[in-house]
Write a structure and sequence with these properties.
Number of helices: 9
CATH superfamily of the largest domain: HAD superfamily/HAD-like
Distance between the termini: 26 Å
Shape: elongated
Number of domains: 2
Helix content: 25-40%
Strand content: 5-15%
Radius of gyration: 18 Å
CATH architecture of the largest domain: 3-Layer(aba) Sandwich
CATH class of the largest domain: Alpha Beta
Structural class: alpha/beta
Length: 272
C-alpha cells in the first residue's frame, strides 16, 4: 500500500502499560460469534452491510492487533536489550530505565493538556531513562519490540474481506516510531488493505484528539457521516468519532446505544 499519510514516526494505542492494558481500553477476549454478552446482559448490535459507508476506519491495538504493550515490571526488557546487541547497561538498569519511561509516558498519556502535543518516545527516554546518550536508541528499540503486538490470522482474514466491501483506513496511537509496525502490518496482509494510515505521532497528537480522525477524513476526502469508526476504547475511539459525526462500533465489550451505535464481540463479526 502507498498511503498518503504514511510517515516514519508514530505513537502507541497505549495501555495502562505497567499492567499491560491501555488506559481507557479493554482488550477483546475472542468469542465465537455475536450474541448475548452474558457478563453485561446486553445484546451485540452488528453493523450490517459495510457498503452503507464509503469507508471504515479502524483502531489497531485491541481491535485487530493483540499481545503488545508488554511493558510491565515483570517483562524481560533486559533480555531484549541484550538480544539487540546491548551490554553496557546492567539488567537492573535496563529494567529501571524502561519503568521510568513507562511511568512518565502514562502520566503524559492521561494528561488532557498534552493530547495535541504529545512527547515522543525519544523525548521520554532522554528526560526520564537516565541512560547515556549512546544507549538511548537501543533502549528505544527495546521498548518498541515490547510495544508491538501481532495480528491473528482471523483478524487478517476479516480485514481482507472488509476491504472488498468498502475502503479501509487505520487511525492509531503508538509510542515508538511507526517503522516498527510496518513489517508486521505488511506480512499480515493488513497494510495492503489500507487506503489511509494515520499514526498519532505523525501529527504530534494522540486520540482522543480529533486531529488524527480529521486527518484521515481529509485524506479520504469524505465527510464524517460517510464513515464508520471501529475501535475498542470508548474514550479514545468511540467518543471522539461520535463528536465528529461518524457512525461507531465498539469491539470487545458491550455498551448501550447511547454510547456507541454498534458493538460486536470481535472484528470478524463485521463480516459474519
Amino acid at each position: 500500500m502507498a498511503s498518503p499519510c504514511l510517515a516514519p514516526m508514530s505513537v502507541m494505542n497505549v495501555m495502562s502499560v505497567m499492567s499491560g492494558l491501555e488506559a481507557g481500553r479493554t482488550v477483546c477476549t475472542p468469542q465465537a460469534s455475536p450474541g448475548l454478552d452474558a457478563s453485561r446482559g446486553g445484546p451485540w448490535r452488528p453493523v450490517g452491510a459495510l457498503s452503507q459507508w464509503r469507508a471504515v476506519l479502524l483502531d489497531m491495538n485491541g481491535t485487530f492487533m493483540f499481545g503488545g504493550d508488554r511493558l510491565g515490571a515483570d517483562d524481560d526488557h533486559a533480555g531484549t536489550y541484550l538480544a539487540l546487541g546491548g551490554g553496557r547497561l546492567a539488567p537492573q538498569e535496563v529494567q529501571g530505565a524502561v519503568a521510568a519511561c513507562v511511568a512518565a509516558f502514562q502520566r503524559d498519556y492521561d494528561d488532557p493538556s498534552l493530547q495535541e502535543a504529545f512527547p515522543s518516545l525519544a523525548s521520554h527516554i532522554a528526560q526520564h531513562s537516565g541512560v547515556p546518550a549512546d544507549e538511548r536508541e537501543r533502549l528505544a528499540l527495546t521498548i518498541a519490540q515490547h510495544e508491538r503486538g501481532h495480528v491473528p490470522d482471523w483478524a487478517s482474514r476479516a480485514i481482507a474481506v472488509m476491504a472488498t466491501q468498502t475502503r479501509l483506513g487505520l487511525v492509531s496511537n503508538l509510542w515508538a516510531p511507526a517503522a516498527h509496525w510496518t513489517q508486521t502490518l505488511a506480512s499480515s496482509g493488513v497494510w495492503a488493505c489500507m487506503s489511509v494510515v494515520v499514526f498519532s505521532t505523525d501529527l504530534g497528537a494522540v486520540k482522543p484528539s480529533l486531529r488524527p480522525f480529521e486527518h484521515a477524513l481529509a485524506q479520504l476526502k469524505l465527510s464524517p457521516h460517510e464513515v464508520l469508526f471501529v475501535g475498542d476504547s470508548v474514550t479514545r475511539d468511540i467518543e471522539p468519532a461520535k463528536r465528529l459525526g461518524m457512525a461507531t462500533c465498539l469491539v470487545g465489550q458491550w455498551a448501550p446505544e447511547s454510547v456507541t451505535d454498534h458493538c460486536v464481540a470481535r472484528l470478524d463479526a463485521l463480516v459474519a
